Amino acid sequence: MPMPEPFSGNKRKVGNPVSNLVTYFSLLKSVKWQFAGALACGLIYAATSGFGLPFILDRILPKLYGPNELTPAQLFMAVAQIPLIFAFRAAGGFSNQYLVEYCGTRLLAQLRQQVFDKLQVLHLAFFAKRDSGDLLSRTMNDTDIVQKAVMKVANDLIVQPVILISALGFVTWMAFNRAGIGLILLFLLMVPACVFPIRIMARKLHQRARQMQKQMGAVTECVRENLGATREIRAFNLEARESSRFKHFLNEFLRYHLKVEKYLKAISPSIEFISSVGIALAIFYGRLAGITFLDIGPLIVALYFAYDPIKKLGVVNGEIRKGLASIERVEEILKEPVLIMDRPDAQAVTEARGHIEFVDVSFSYGDGPVLKEINCTLAENCVYALVGPSGAGKSTFASLLPRFYEPTSGRVALDGRDIRDIKISDLRRQIAFVPQDPVLFDDTIVENILVSRPDATHQEAEEAARRAFAHPFIVAFEAGYTTVVGDRGARLSGGQLQRIALARAFLKNAPILILDEATSALDSESEEVIQRALEYLVKDKTVLIIAHRFSTIHMAERILVFQNGRIVAMGSHDELLNSCDVYTQLYRKQMLP
Ligand code: ADP
Question: How far is the CA of 589 from the centre of ligand 1 (A)?
Fold first, then answer.
């Protein structure tokens, strides 16, 4: 799946905070008119705040209480300006906030979609290293924080400076006309004093926010893990342990959350205090300079409005820092390189014959080799059993074929062509995979069978279910094929899940079948029907059976014996029984009482 331009790079460094956020402004493209409207309304709000309110104080009130007598019409016209200014301010403020929310919601949806889309194409090793609860938290919580930061920056970085400039314009005008240049200098002197607390708080905020979001990931992972193990928790009496684990993660999250809020909330009052000093000094200076009460009133309001945007920009800076911690977490997903993808010249394959070759294939998950220089050829329409001690590398060997992982060195070929030169979707269409523990989606049975070939008809799905001996138990449900199976197929037994997985493979009817034999024992009736179904399923296919137990081995024409990441022997059961010690030992251990 192609990713939009801003996230295609592999850079991870956090540079200038604002420029990091600016990358995400491109998400606003789809709502550019609404966002322009939001800014325009924000500017109306800003101008009526920074200039409007001091203007009322300076122009309207003196007229009302001045020495000149006013006619009722003049009086009305004068006071009518007050609600008029406030009407603009209210309409601007409301429309700005609503439109910003509108754009933010759209931005959040796009951002979450991008993260989700990326999760669909990332290699499996990425997930092995991470908690799914933490990834869930990044997809839902961190994107939300990024969205809030982007919207705050996008809005306030334009609106607040306008308030500042309009208020400053008024202060300057007043100062020049009535109070003298000293006031401006006074104001300017106070600005660096405001920047100081902003910088300190922002630095502390960033670190705490990173820890807070990490803890949010831990809380989500704890809930996910707990809900996935409801049976075990009751069986092992783990309820109290689970509650205290959750409490611990929650407390840690709250601890950092409160720290973040402490620094965020401290910005405003600190600047307010500094601005009160500035205003006090202005009054002090004004009194000495002999400025009248009527002149100093509007000036104080204008000064207040000049400090207010500095305060808001300080808070924005804090929000940026909070957002940056989440951006780092979201970008760990967005900027993770897609290791397994189509080469530009990848070929289409409609129907493979099923001839497979492993040439000098080695593989490592990261800590030491798991497969070592494997060379073997698997003939088409032949059934192979992969046997060997647990951890010998059988499942890993089979997962290289659908490119779940990429060999560290060497190559795998299908019908003489390197599988990296075949389109991944075409390659995977040639392979039916029956996993050890099949996962069903929380949907109807028929939809769960159809996942292997979505363009098939319901009749074809039913036919596949019949061949997998799943039909009788499916129709025994009141809703039959439209029975909803529950989370991960919770309403079905282990044997029933296996049969649905086999029905998927029958429906797909791919030339290659990988069958990871169930490790947990099935009841004897399920075991028997599954064996019968398998005997049909393996016909005319290249089949790799990962035989954890030896129950399916009689179906195999050839057996590959794995030990310590190597294929140590290959042959028929009888050949191996006479010639391969590893095989003989495994066989004896499993088959003899
Ligand atoms: P088998 O199927 O023969 O039991 P596997 O192929 O599952 O063996 O595992 C081979 C080795 O690779 C084992 O040591 C196992 O611990 C390791 N391994 C398997 N899957 C992963 C993974 N996702 N990440 C890291 N190591 C793994």
Answer: 22
